[in-house]
Amino acid sequence: MKKIIFVVAILYSITLFSQDKRIPLDTIVTTSSSVTIKGKKISYKAQTGTQPVYDANGVAKATLFYTYYYRTDVSNSEKRPLLMSFNGGPGSASVWMHIAYTGPKILKIDDEGNPIQPYGIKDNPYSILDEADIVFVNPVNTAYSRPIVAAEEKVDAKYFFGINADAKYLADWLNLFVTRTNRWNSPKYIIGESYGGTRVMQLAHELQNNQWMYLNGVIMVSPADYQLLRTQSSEDYAINFPYFTAAAWYHKMLPPELQQKDLLEILPEAENFAVNTLLPALAKGGFINDAEKNKVAEKMAYYSGIKKEVILQHNLEVPNSYFWKELLRDTSGKTIGRLDSRYLGIDRRESGTKPDYSPELVSWLHSFTPAINYYIQNVLNFKTDVKYNMFGTVQPWDFSKNNARENLRKAMAQNPYLKVLVQSGYYDGATTYAAAKYTMGKIDPSGKLKNRLFFKGYRSGHMMYLRKEDLQKANDDLRDFIKNSAENIGAAKY
């Protein structure tokens, strides 16, 4: 039987200052439980609640909802690794990795990640809680996290909603959290999914340079790099192209000589073509000669499963969104998913340049929304009438002064302990695996840090952990990364 301990500490009345009076500023609910991981029973506590964000004058600007899992059956918990987890959006709650990837509970879904009824959760036999304690953090306006403003004032958007502002206030929050939980001696890691990839690149620098909190690892899951993503540059079109090959292979749309090979045999071919042939061709723009243009288009059709004619109509610059609509247009007439191209959708019309909706996202919301609302209220015992925001209002988001890549490089250069792991699904058409590899190379143009940058790929999409086989593999990769990067390597020097 679970022991439930309620510890509620309200720092001061929020009657006049909270945007939503139903959320306490500073409160904790603690539950005790256990889970069997890799055949071994693990006892843990879950600390769920809200913790304030304070400005430089000690004034509360917001309260963030979080869930913190820590083992209780170990003798020296202070030195256990601590994983600080974020999702992306921007504007997304931490729900995705919380109840589908690293936490002790996961969704009830089928082995490929599709929703099944009745909805719910079950134990996660692959959780990394055996190796590291985990805190799932929800930025402002996601989950139950809310800004604090006087009744007549507006939310200070510049304080929260931008690449640099986001990292700054979250670093302040993490400093307080680590102090309150006595985790300063622990090896520390930050993990971010999608936009969370940009977030943790920036956050690593912010933590080290303004909080003096040095990390052992940064983990990027299906990272969104906005110095490449949606730029519609030659690099953007070319670097994403190997994803076309992966998705076409999955749907059996490639020529027989490619289709009969394994996915990992053909992707290096597609990557080589993208970098050494397609990218130079795109760089020539309208000055490419007809013979070369036709030759490149023919090879693009070979590696993508779409017609040479439509490739030429796009001047070799085929957007991912068009590919999702085009790949199966002449066969089943279905669209393929943006975040996970294994999923299929049905549009009103087969004609058009992009799908009507993202079939994978609606599928995921189908599973996640009832599960997280049930879990928090009934298992973690955090009671509130406030709506849980799967996605919250954070727009317009300030993408200016984006130096996230360079700031991660500085953090790595400053800290010889710091290593980076990137995890990507081959069928992710939003933040492609090849773009993630590209980002790794751009983080460190000198190549002097590349022995601390690691990549892992999976036969699934954006949330690779929804597929049972990859849930196990991806968690094992995290576990190995944490073990290796938490080892004592001696003095932190070059």
From TrEMBL:
PROSITE patterns associated with the record: CARBOXYPEPT_SER_SER
Highest taxon listed in the record's lineage: Bacteria
Molecular-function GO terms, alphabetical: carboxypeptidase activity
InterPro entries linked to this entry: AB_hydrolase_fold, Peptidase_S10, Ser_caboxypep_ser_AS
One Pfam family, short name: Peptidase_S10
Keywords tagged on the record: Carboxypeptidase, Glycoprotein, Hydrolase, Protease, Signal
Protein's name in the database: Carboxypeptidase
Phylogenetic classification of the source organism: Bacteria, Pseudomonadati, Bacteroidota, Flavobacteriia, Flavobacteriales
